[in-house]
User: Fold this.
Amino acid sequence: MKALLWKDICLLRRQLRLFIIAVLVFAVIPNSYVQLFAVAYASMLPYNTIALDEQSHWDQLAAMMPYSDRDVVFSKYLIGWGGCLAAGVLALAAGVVERPFFTGAAAPQAVLAILCVGLIMVAVSMPVLFRFGVAKGRFVIVIMVMLICGCAGAASGVVSDTDAVRLSGGALLLAAVTTVAANLISVPIAARLYRRKREG
Assistant:
């Protein structure tokens, strides 16, 4: 598993520089919608590694190595989860520092909700990528990301910080449970689709 992660990190080395810069810029802007974009962008990190794997026919090489289909798929999820968590932590730290000075800075509850949105995007998009590939799946995912970000951005504009704090208890718990459940369901589905595509 560590070797698979290191391979993906090496593939993303150039993109990671741009990612870090973009996330740093967007995560520290005192606006919850922009911070949502930072987390959403972070959730797309696995797309590049899957695209490069397809171009190099990595699946054929991986089949000859002691890696299970679940290991290969799970390493992609770890990249997506790690990117979302990194962006979320940056946004959370920026919000704590900025809230005394900027009224538009996102509350911690809003950042946690944004993080849940990003992780759910990983759960929904990964099976699509493993089923259709990056070339075909990209269009579905772009539409999905636009809808999710649009709905989340509209909700953040309607719900004030005071309302967010009031609703944070039950709503955030439900969001967290939904996020965990979505990813637990998504991983075996993606592994099954990956195996079916590789064998087909």
